[in-house]
Amino acid sequence: MVPVSVRKRQALEALEARITTCRRCPRLVEWRERVAREKRASFAGEEYWGRPVPGFGDPQARVLVLGLAPAAHGGNRTGRVFTGDRSGDWLFASMHRTGFANQPESYARDDGLQLEGAFIAAAVRCAPPANKPLPSERDNCLPYAAEELELLEPAVILCLGLFAWNAACTLLGVRPRPRFGHAVEFRVDDGPVLLGCYHPSQQNTFTGKLTEPMTDAVFARARELATL
């Protein structure tokens, strides 16, 4: 009998292949490819990914970390969500401190980062202009997250920001939507616990709205909830 982890891995790999070739949203296709051609000066010598960015992590994860979308010069450059941008620096450092990641930073797809007990994905898989996906673009993309949820069956969905929180509510059919907040918990009937966390954007981390202890506490709580 094929182990569950192998079956999941194969299914996730097949899903990844479909995600990375998606062209459903013309505006996002044009933007992600233009950014990849024009590049940021500091990354001029790098080859940008310039495609939709799949989720990644432990196929046996009990915690799904859900973000908004890849950054134009982060995941859209590296091909891995949160890798190569300031938000990711903050996120992976916390995940390392709380035992979900084997190293505190990630700068490239082949940098050796491994997640244990966690899987990271974004509600929208292409970098959007001004980091603001349209509702139609979100709706085009959410079926991919729905497939990941079905395959992973996580006990906890850790939502990074309001956009991810609302996306998770949509995926799980939660109505009315519970109010988002940092460390807010909502248990879905016969489903996972939604756990809120302020997004690790510089807007939040530079202003002190989100601190390292706050982030670590949320990940520690995610681990606790996942073992209940």
Looking at the structure, the CATH topology is Uracil-DNA Glycosylase, subunit E
| Main sheet summary | 6 strands, mixed
Strand numbers in spatial order across the main sheet: 1-3-2-4-6-5
Give me the number of helical elements: 8
Q: Strand-and-helix sequence, N→C?
A: HHEEHHEHEHEEHH
Spell out the key features of this protein.
Uracil-DNA Glycosylase, subunit E, 228 residues, globular, 41% helix, single chain, alpha/beta, six-stranded mixed β-sheet
Q: Can you put this structure into words, describing what you see?
A:
The structure is a single chain. 41% of the residues lie in helices and 11% in strands. The chain is of the alpha/beta class and 228 residues long. It has a single domain, classed as Uracil-DNA glycosylase-like domain (Uracil-DNA Glycosylase, subunit E, 3-Layer(aba) Sandwich), CATH 3.40.470. A six-stranded mixed sheet has the order 1-3-2-4-6-5, sandwiched between helices. Helix 1 runs antiparallel to helix 5 and helix 4 crosses helix 8. The radius of gyration is 16 Å and the shape is globular. The two termini are 28 Å apart.
